[in-house]
Amino acid sequence: MDYPRAFIFVDKDTRLPTLKTMRRWFRVEAPHKIYVKGRCASNKDLDVEIEMMTSIFQYANESQSQALRCVVVSTTEVEPYTELLTDKGWRGIAWIDSEEHLKKLQELFFVVTTANDCALAMEQAQDYFQVLVTFINRRFRQVALSDPGPSQLMHGLLDDAKTELKVQIKNLVEQHARHVVQGEESPNDRMALQAAA
After folding, report:
1. CA-CA distance, 41 to 164, in Å (whole number)?
2. Is the Cβ–Cβ distance between 91 and 180 less than 8 Å?
3. Cβ contacts of residue 136 below 8 Å, gap of 6+?
4. Which of 98, 108, 124, 187 has the most CB atoms around it within 10 Å of its CB?
């Protein structure tokens, strides 16, 4: 599939029209210029790109728990996509402009994946610390450990670290990813992340 590629995100439960209808919507005639996993012949490279772009899109929009499907279209047309963003179930669009852009996004995917793992590990560290403090307090009746100081300090430090990390990664996303996002915001705010060429 040629570049640029649009990755159009929809809710997992959104009923998609036929491929022929979507080709008409997106103004592409050749069948190979549109890809929907499960509807088209399997393409492992595109499946990997869909996973990557979905992860970046979800991180940028703080919607990691949202189940999404993806329609990939090879086109330079923009207008059909902006019209879709007003439809229920269509969540947004991300683009890959070129092979060079793909390489940057692969690096960004590594950062996002590692950040998600890091945030989970930090949450687990907080949970383990709290379990340990609670056990020691109950089992050994150590009054010093009931003091909220160490626990609050640990939670505060980890929360600050997660926040700083998220800000830094969102800055990277803004620099290297192009997204049009649907949400409750005004139409002017829908251009949440633009490419820094």
Report:
1. 42
2. no
3. 142, 145
4. 108
- Predicted confidence pLDDT, tens digits, the chain (197 residues): 788 888 888 888 888 888 888 888 888 888 888 999 888 888 999 999 999 999 888 888 777 667 888 889 888 776 666 666 556 677 888 888 889 989 999 999 999 899 889 888 888 888 888 788 778 778 777 655 555 666 777 778 888 888 888 888 888 887 777 654 544 332 333 333 333 22
Q: In what order do the strands lie in the sheet with 5-11?
A: 34-36, 68-74, 5-11, 90-96, 178-181
What one-letter code names the amino acid at 19? L
For residue 51, what is the enclosing H or E element? helix 44-60
